[in-house]
From TrEMBL:
Residues 1-19 form the signal peptide. It comes from Leptospira soteropolitanensis. It comes from the Bacteria. Keywords: Signal. This is Lipoprotein.
Protein backbone atom coordinates (compact mmCIF):
# COMPACT_ATOMS: atom_id res chain seq x y z
CA UNK A 1 0.00 0.00 0.00
CA UNK A 2 2.80 2.41 0.91
CA UNK A 3 4.51 1.70 -2.42
CA UNK A 4 1.25 2.33 -4.29
CA UNK A 5 0.83 5.74 -2.61
CA UNK A 6 4.39 6.72 -3.51
CA UNK A 7 3.82 5.62 -7.10
CA UNK A 8 0.54 7.56 -7.31
CA UNK A 9 2.18 10.72 -5.90
CA UNK A 10 5.05 10.40 -8.38
CA UNK A 11 2.65 10.08 -11.30
CA UNK A 12 0.69 13.17 -10.19
CA UNK A 13 3.88 15.21 -9.75
CA UNK A 14 5.18 14.10 -13.15
CA UNK A 15 1.91 15.07 -14.82
CA UNK A 16 1.93 18.49 -13.14
CA UNK A 17 5.50 19.23 -14.27
CA UNK A 18 4.64 18.18 -17.81
CA UNK A 19 1.60 20.48 -17.82
CA UNK A 20 3.69 23.43 -16.61
CA UNK A 21 6.37 22.80 -19.24
CA UNK A 22 3.72 22.40 -21.92
CA UNK A 23 2.10 25.72 -20.94
CA UNK A 24 5.45 27.53 -20.92
CA UNK A 25 6.41 26.01 -24.27
CA UNK A 26 3.06 27.01 -25.75
CA UNK A 27 3.48 30.59 -24.50
CA UNK A 28 6.96 30.82 -26.03
CA UNK A 29 5.68 29.24 -29.24
CA UNK A 30 2.79 31.72 -29.44
CA UNK A 31 5.20 34.66 -29.16
CA UNK A 32 7.53 33.14 -31.75
CA UNK A 33 4.63 32.37 -34.09
CA UNK A 34 3.39 35.96 -33.88
CA UNK A 35 6.81 37.29 -34.82
CA UNK A 36 7.37 34.78 -37.61
CA UNK A 37 3.91 35.42 -39.01
CA UNK A 38 4.63 39.14 -39.20
CA UNK A 39 7.98 38.52 -40.87
CA UNK A 40 6.46 36.26 -43.52
CA UNK A 41 3.62 38.67 -44.29
CA UNK A 42 5.92 41.63 -45.00
CA UNK A 43 9.70 42.02 -45.14
CA UNK A 44 9.70 45.46 -43.47
CA UNK A 45 8.79 44.02 -40.09
CA UNK A 46 11.55 42.79 -37.83
CA UNK A 47 14.93 43.59 -36.35
CA UNK A 48 18.39 43.46 -37.82
CA UNK A 49 21.94 44.56 -37.16
CA UNK A 50 23.14 47.93 -38.42
CA UNK A 51 26.74 48.93 -39.07
CA UNK A 52 27.19 52.27 -40.82
CA UNK A 53 29.12 55.53 -40.62
CA UNK A 54 27.41 56.33 -37.31
CA UNK A 55 28.33 53.06 -35.61
CA UNK A 56 26.66 49.78 -34.74
CA UNK A 57 23.24 48.94 -33.41
CA UNK A 58 19.91 47.23 -34.01
CA UNK A 59 17.17 48.54 -36.30
CA UNK A 60 13.53 47.66 -35.62
CA UNK A 61 11.27 48.06 -38.64
CA UNK A 62 7.51 48.38 -38.21
CA UNK A 63 6.20 49.66 -41.56
CA UNK A 64 5.37 46.18 -42.83
CA UNK A 65 3.98 44.75 -39.59
CA UNK A 66 0.39 43.63 -39.06
CA UNK A 67 -1.58 41.47 -36.64
CA UNK A 68 -1.12 41.30 -32.87
CA UNK A 69 0.91 44.40 -32.03
CA UNK A 70 1.42 43.47 -28.36
CA UNK A 71 2.81 40.00 -29.09
CA UNK A 72 4.96 41.19 -31.99
CA UNK A 73 6.54 44.03 -30.03
CA UNK A 74 7.07 41.74 -27.06
CA UNK A 75 9.05 39.48 -29.37
CA UNK A 76 11.12 42.52 -30.41
CA UNK A 77 11.82 43.38 -26.76
CA UNK A 78 9.30 46.20 -26.26
CA UNK A 79 6.22 46.77 -24.12
CA UNK A 80 3.42 48.45 -26.08
CA UNK A 81 0.36 50.39 -24.95
CA UNK A 82 -2.36 51.98 -27.07
CA UNK A 83 -0.65 51.49 -30.44
CA UNK A 84 -1.66 49.61 -33.59
CA UNK A 85 -0.10 48.56 -36.87
CA UNK A 86 -0.83 50.52 -40.03
CA UNK A 87 2.14 51.55 -42.16
CA UNK A 88 4.14 51.43 -38.94
CA UNK A 89 3.30 51.92 -35.28
CA UNK A 90 0.23 54.14 -35.13
CA UNK A 91 -0.31 56.24 -32.02
CA UNK A 92 -3.22 58.54 -31.21
CA UNK A 93 -2.13 60.36 -28.02
CA UNK A 94 0.61 60.61 -25.41
CA UNK A 95 -0.87 57.44 -23.93
CA UNK A 96 0.24 55.54 -27.05
CA UNK A 97 3.67 54.27 -26.00
CA UNK A 98 6.40 51.74 -26.55
CA UNK A 99 9.25 51.05 -24.14
CA UNK A 100 12.25 48.75 -24.27
CA UNK A 101 12.07 45.96 -21.71
CA UNK A 102 15.73 46.37 -20.81
CA UNK A 103 18.42 49.03 -20.63
CA UNK A 104 19.62 50.19 -24.06
CA UNK A 105 22.77 52.12 -23.19
CA UNK A 106 25.74 52.41 -25.52
CA UNK A 107 27.97 53.22 -22.53
CA UNK A 108 27.26 52.60 -18.85
CA UNK A 109 28.37 54.19 -15.58
CA UNK A 110 28.12 57.75 -14.26
CA UNK A 111 28.70 59.06 -17.80
CA UNK A 112 26.18 56.75 -19.45
CA UNK A 113 25.15 57.29 -23.07
CA UNK A 114 22.28 56.23 -25.33
CA UNK A 115 21.61 57.08 -28.97
CA UNK A 116 18.78 56.36 -31.39
CA UNK A 117 17.54 57.08 -34.90
CA UNK A 118 13.80 57.37 -35.56
CA UNK A 119 11.91 57.44 -38.85
CA UNK A 120 8.36 58.72 -38.39
CA UNK A 121 5.42 60.42 -40.10
CA UNK A 122 3.35 63.11 -38.39
CA UNK A 123 -0.37 62.80 -39.10
CA UNK A 124 -1.32 66.43 -38.48
CA UNK A 125 0.01 69.84 -37.46
CA UNK A 126 -0.27 69.22 -33.69
CA UNK A 127 1.35 65.77 -33.78
CA UNK A 128 4.31 65.03 -31.50
CA UNK A 129 6.69 62.19 -30.76
CA UNK A 130 8.36 62.22 -27.34
CA UNK A 131 11.58 60.20 -27.40
CA UNK A 132 12.68 59.43 -23.83
CA UNK A 133 16.32 58.34 -23.92
CA UNK A 134 17.66 56.85 -20.67
CA UNK A 135 14.10 56.55 -19.36
CA UNK A 136 12.55 54.68 -16.45
CA UNK A 137 9.55 52.35 -17.00
CA UNK A 138 7.40 55.34 -15.93
CA UNK A 139 8.84 57.56 -18.69
CA UNK A 140 10.91 59.62 -16.27
CA UNK A 141 14.14 60.92 -17.74
CA UNK A 142 15.67 63.10 -20.46
CA UNK A 143 14.76 63.12 -24.12
CA UNK A 144 13.63 65.02 -27.19
CA UNK A 145 10.15 66.08 -28.27
CA UNK A 146 9.63 66.13 -32.03
CA UNK A 147 6.93 68.20 -33.71
CA UNK A 148 6.34 68.47 -37.48
CA UNK A 149 8.99 71.21 -37.89
CA UNK A 150 11.20 71.47 -34.79
CA UNK A 151 12.71 69.69 -31.78
CA UNK A 152 12.60 70.54 -28.05
CA UNK A 153 14.41 68.91 -25.15
CA UNK A 154 12.47 66.96 -22.55
CA UNK A 155 12.58 66.67 -18.79
CA UNK A 156 10.21 63.69 -18.65
CA UNK A 157 6.88 65.19 -19.85
CA UNK A 158 8.04 68.84 -19.82
CA UNK A 159 9.34 70.26 -23.11
CA UNK A 160 11.56 73.33 -23.48
CA UNK A 161 13.42 75.05 -26.30
CA UNK A 162 17.02 74.04 -26.93
CA UNK A 163 19.28 76.87 -25.74
CA UNK A 164 22.92 75.78 -26.11
CA UNK A 165 22.25 75.29 -29.82
CA UNK A 166 18.71 76.22 -30.87
CA UNK A 167 16.71 73.88 -33.09
CA UNK A 168 16.11 75.50 -36.48
CA UNK A 169 12.80 74.70 -38.22
CA UNK A 170 12.84 72.06 -40.93
CA UNK A 171 10.37 71.17 -43.69
CA UNK A 172 7.12 69.85 -42.24
CA UNK A 173 6.93 66.10 -41.67
CA UNK A 174 3.12 66.00 -41.85
CA UNK A 175 2.29 63.18 -44.25
CA UNK A 176 5.91 62.48 -45.23
CA UNK A 177 8.64 60.37 -43.59
CA UNK A 178 11.25 62.16 -41.48
CA UNK A 179 14.40 60.68 -39.93
CA UNK A 180 16.21 62.18 -36.94
CA UNK A 181 19.25 61.18 -34.90
CA UNK A 182 19.22 61.74 -31.13
CA UNK A 183 21.53 61.10 -28.19
CA UNK A 184 21.58 61.70 -24.44
CA UNK A 185 24.67 61.62 -22.24
CA UNK A 186 24.48 61.55 -18.48
CA UNK A 187 27.20 63.89 -17.26
CA UNK A 188 27.42 63.59 -13.49
CA UNK A 189 23.84 64.34 -12.37
CA UNK A 190 22.76 66.30 -15.45
CA UNK A 191 21.91 65.52 -19.05
CA UNK A 192 23.58 66.48 -22.31
CA UNK A 193 20.84 66.22 -24.94
CA UNK A 194 21.52 66.75 -28.63
CA UNK A 195 20.78 65.59 -32.14
CA UNK A 196 20.37 66.14 -35.87
CA UNK A 197 17.34 66.37 -38.16
CA UNK A 198 18.86 63.86 -40.58
CA UNK A 199 19.84 60.16 -40.45
CA UNK A 200 22.71 59.35 -38.11
CA UNK A 201 25.02 58.12 -40.88
CA UNK A 202 24.73 61.52 -42.64
CA UNK A 203 25.28 63.68 -39.56
CA UNK A 204 28.45 65.62 -38.77
CA UNK A 205 28.93 63.95 -35.43
CA UNK A 206 31.46 66.54 -34.22
CA UNK A 207 28.89 69.36 -34.18
CA UNK A 208 25.25 69.32 -33.12
CA UNK A 209 22.23 70.73 -34.92
CA UNK A 210 20.35 71.20 -31.63
CA UNK A 211 21.77 70.83 -28.14
CA UNK A 212 21.10 71.35 -24.44
CA UNK A 213 24.05 71.09 -22.07
CA UNK A 214 23.68 70.69 -18.30
CA UNK A 215 19.98 69.88 -18.54
CA UNK A 216 18.46 69.42 -15.10
CA UNK A 217 16.24 66.33 -14.96
CA UNK A 218 14.01 66.55 -11.88
CA UNK A 219 13.54 62.81 -11.54
CA UNK A 220 17.23 62.16 -12.19
CA UNK A 221 18.76 59.88 -14.81
CA UNK A 222 18.39 56.50 -13.19
CA UNK A 223 17.60 54.00 -15.95
CA UNK A 224 18.64 53.25 -19.52
CA UNK A 225 15.47 52.36 -21.41
CA UNK A 226 14.22 53.88 -24.65
CA UNK A 227 10.60 55.02 -24.65
CA UNK A 228 8.39 56.69 -27.26
CA UNK A 229 5.10 58.55 -26.78
CA UNK A 230 3.40 58.57 -30.18
CA UNK A 231 0.82 61.36 -30.39
CA UNK A 232 -1.03 61.36 -33.75
CA UNK A 233 2.00 59.96 -35.53
CA UNK A 234 3.41 56.79 -37.10
CA UNK A 235 6.78 55.25 -36.22
CA UNK A 236 8.22 53.41 -39.22
CA UNK A 237 11.49 52.35 -37.59
CA UNK A 238 13.78 52.93 -34.64
CA UNK A 239 17.49 52.16 -34.48
CA UNK A 240 19.13 51.76 -31.08
CA UNK A 241 22.89 52.23 -31.29
CA UNK A 242 25.36 50.28 -29.19
CA UNK A 243 28.16 52.75 -29.94
CA UNK A 244 28.10 56.44 -29.01
CA UNK A 245 27.11 58.95 -31.67
CA UNK A 246 28.39 62.35 -30.52
CA UNK A 247 32.09 63.04 -31.06
CA UNK A 248 32.34 66.64 -29.84
CA UNK A 249 35.38 66.84 -27.57
CA UNK A 250 33.47 68.92 -25.03
CA UNK A 251 31.47 65.84 -24.10
CA UNK A 252 32.74 64.31 -20.91
Amino acid sequence: MKFAKILLFSLIAFSFVNCVELFQSKKKKDNTDALLAALFVAPNCGSGSVSDAAGKGTRYQFSGCSGDVTATLRAFGFTANGVSFGGGLQGTSNSSTILTNASSLSETGNDSKAGIEITYIMNQADSTVDALIQSTPSFIGPGVQLSPTVAKWLDSATAADFVTTASKPWTSSVGVPKTVCLEVHKENSKGHIFGWSIPCNLANRSTYEFEEEDATIKGGITDGRIGLKINKAVIQSITIYTTKLGLNKSIQ
